[in-house]
Amino acid sequence: MSSANLMSRTPSTATPTWHQFERKVDEVKPSKTDLNHLVMDYLITNGYPAAAQKFAVEANISLQTDIDSIQERVEIRTAIHAGNIQAAIERINELNPQILDENPSLHFSLLRLQLVELIRTCTSTPDGDISPALEFATSQLAPRAPTNPQFLEDLERTLALLIFPSDNLSPALASLLDPSLRKDIAMRVNEAILQNQGACQEARLRNLVKLRAFAEKKARSAKKDIPDKLELCLTNDTHDNSSSNNGSTRNGNSDSVLANNGDIDPMIS
């Protein structure tokens, strides 16, 4: 019997052919301990104290950080997400005034966001009083603007929100009122606090994802033999997330606050 006939009778349950690259990847076996520590680092760095506590028990690893310090970052970030910028600034200064004193760019960004929130409030109703926004811009932002050309440009662009109707803004102005601005600045604040505390500003897992994307880009530009599509296996399952968030809310843990404020990690969204 020919070899071709033998091959045609091979059971359909045979292992599918893998690309050589995929076989090499499959040969790499990271330890469960290393993976657990990566997950724990991610939960701590990105501010999920309840999840970190639960995972520490389930993975039988020590939680080598103060839960209160994570919760402080959570509350600051939640205040920013809610548009309560003054409260966030006060909490940051209570934590350590040097965080903003040593980062004038971040401080200005927070104050500008506070101005955006004031403008949002005063323009939400017809004939709204814009004097609180103007007074804040004059007292808090105007003295800082001349120290940096970017500060001055940002202030001028923000004040333009008082001139044009909110329903007919250019994309550049509309982006100031988009909730994503709160999220971006909240992320910067989180990183600044971590840096001030001597911790890594970014989770190691996120760095690995970035490194993996960079390596793939370099490999493709060099015409290396890799599969046409490399799955990252970090897809966002809506059903699972919904179940998880509902469970968080029922348990009353603080992690649900972040989820309910749209804090979906861009790494997995």
TrEMBL record:
Ranges in a coiled coil: none
Region (Disordered): 237-269
SMART domains associated with the record: CRA (SM00757), CTLH (SM00668), LisH (SM00667)
Location of the CTLH domain: 69-126
Pfam families the UniProt entry points to: CTLH, LisH
Biased composition (Low complexity): 241-256
Domain of life of the native organism: Eukaryota
Main function: Involved in the proteasome-dependent degradation of fructose-1,6-bisphosphatase.
PANTHER family named among the record's database cross-references: RAN BINDING PROTEIN 9-RELATED
Protein name as catalogued: Protein FYV10
